[in-house]
Specification:
This protein is mainly alpha-helical. The protein has 2 domains: 416 residues, no CATH class; 62 residues, no CATH class. 85% of the residues lie in helices and 0% in strands. The chain starts with a helix and ends with a helix.
Length: 479
């Protein structure tokens, strides 16, 4: 299982390294610079609003389906015929709820014009994710990897034409960004559908009331968990825009740093995409997950520490390079938010393990407490500190939920935390921070000092045996 995980992870990360950085740092960032912090901040708040309510569309079906198809491939045809009908029903309910809450929030007609398309985009995205859950559940990881970047490739092409050519006579508008997403998601959904179609014995949409109610009953814990986690991950942007008089601008300032955290987290998410069906199958076969958990977490922890430490030391240089319109708080917001990458990474390993195990009751209790912490801190800190208060709230919430998941996973699976390995991690952090401090203080050209800091971090990872070339080689060589 380690070989399958590692080989597919390398392929998936390679694909995403080719696409995601150009999307985030080239296209998405440029859109914010062109349309301005305030317009992008409004889009950011509306996008997060539509994304939080996305759980009505998904209702936990993606994770539930991924886990079930990985364990019982013969159910694909039966489930597909019914779940597609269920998703269409849920999409209508989602649209009604989203528009109703938007009216309660007092969104204007101009804001609703963007929100309508974002609602439709969420429907398309939800359908894509459901189709991909079938593909990865069948362990077709390479196909799933290709589809995972297809929408971004299409959007890069469209938005690049609109941004950097004379194809239009007017200045780029934030609405064009949303329309590009609609087109890209539509094409990707069609491609994913035609990949799944040959795997289905017959396609006949059915409304099996008993089965649908059974599925909804079984997926409710998944749905609740995804909603709660989405809430404390994404509601910050909505609250900033609603609670502050200059909310759209502050949301735009927050979005500058959140974009970089979100982009980094997408690579951590790749671990989850591969690990969920693998963990599910191992648990069904009563295989020990201890070695894979330890291996995968170290594989994400060391690069995560390097990313966070280097980003904090070079926060001014990074933000000045990327953005035209920066506030005095932009640098500290970035330093706080990027630190949340470490607890988020832990969630993608240990939370995925617990999801595969079906430990939804424990995860939901944790998430409810996480939402309570998030709301309490946000309502206290945002009116006083603005976007900086939301950043502080984010890392506090993420740290609590990550630590809780580690302890729950340790309890259920009797995971062994080696004291010598823990000591190596702590020593690695201290030594690495010291090296980066010296490099940053003594080499003025950050284009030299930053890559050098990253290289030192990688070398120290091998020195402290947190990264091991021999292990990688043995995994790839093994049958």
């Amino acid at each position: 299982m380690k070989k399958k995980f590692f080989a597919n992870l390398i392929f998936l990360i390679s694909l995403n390294l080719l696409v995601k950085p150009f999307w985030v740092l080239g296209v998405d960032r440029s859109v914010q610079n062109v349309v301005g912090t305030e317009d992008y901040g409004l889009y950011f708040a509306l996008f997060n609003f539509s994304l939080i309510l996305n759980i009505i569309l998904d209702f936990g079906l993606t994770n539930y389906n991924n886990r079930n198809i990985a364990q019982h491939k013969q159910l694909l045809t039966k489930y597909f015929s019914n779940i597609v009908v269920l998703k269409l029903i849920l999409s209508l309910f989602y649209a009604v709820v989203a528009i109703s809450i938007g009216l309660l929030f007092g969104y204007s007609w101009e804001e609703f014009k963007i929100l309508f398309f974002l609602i439709f985009n969420q429907f398309l995205l939800s359908f894509i994710l459901y189709l991909r859950s079938n593909i990865s559940g069948l362990h077709l990881f390479k196909t799933d990897s290709l589809i995972s970047v297809l929408d971004r490739v299409i959007m890069i092409g469209i938005v690049s034409l609109l941004l950097w050519t004379n194809i239009t006579d007017s200045k780029f508008k934030i609405e064009w960004f949303v329309y590009s997403q609609t087109f890209a998601y539509s094409i990707t959904a069609l491609v994913a559908f035609f990949v799944v179609l040959p795997k289905i014995k017959y396609l006949k949409l059915r409304f099996d009331k008993a089965l649908l109610f059974l599925i909804l009953k079984e997926t409710f814990p998944f749905a609740l968990l995804v909603f709660l986690m989405g809430f404390y991950n994404r509601f910050d942007g909505v609250l900033i825009e609603r609670l502050l008089t200059n909310g759209s601008h502050q949301a735009g300032v927050y979005a500058q740093s959140f974009r970089l955290l979100d982009a980094s987290s997408q690579f951590a998410l790749l671990f989850s995409v591969l690990l969920l069906p693998i963990f599910a199958k191992m648990i069904k076969n009563k295989e020990s997950v201890n070695e894979l958990v330890n291996f995968s977490y170290l594989l994400i922890l060391v690069p995560g520490i390097i990313l966070v430490v280097v980003s904090i030391f070079f926060r001014v240089e990074i933000m000045n390079l990327l953005y035209d319109d920066l506030s005095s708080d932009s640098y500290i917001i970035f330093a706080i938010l990027i630190s949340a990458f470490l607890p988020i990474s832990a969630t993608y390993i240990f939370g995925t393990l617990l999801t595969a195990n079906g430990s939804l009751k424990q995860l939901n209790i944790m998430a409810i407490i996480g939402v309570a912490i998030n709301l309490s801190l946000n309502f206290m800190l945002i009116p006083i500190l603005g976007a900086k208060g939301a950043a502080i709230t984010s890392i506090a919430t993420q740290s609590f939920t990550a630590i809780t998941q580690i302890f729950i996973a340790k309890h259920f699976f009797n995971l062994k935390i080696l004291k010598m390995q823990l000591l190596s991690i702590i020593t690695f952090v201290i030594v690495f921070v010291s090296f980066v401090y010296l490099i940053h203080a003594n080499i003025e050209n950050w284009l030299i000092s930053m890559p050098l800091s990253v290289l030192v971090g990688i070398l120290l990872g091998f020195v402290f045996r947190l990264l091991n070339l021999k292990t990688f080689y043995q995994i790839l060589k093994s049958k």
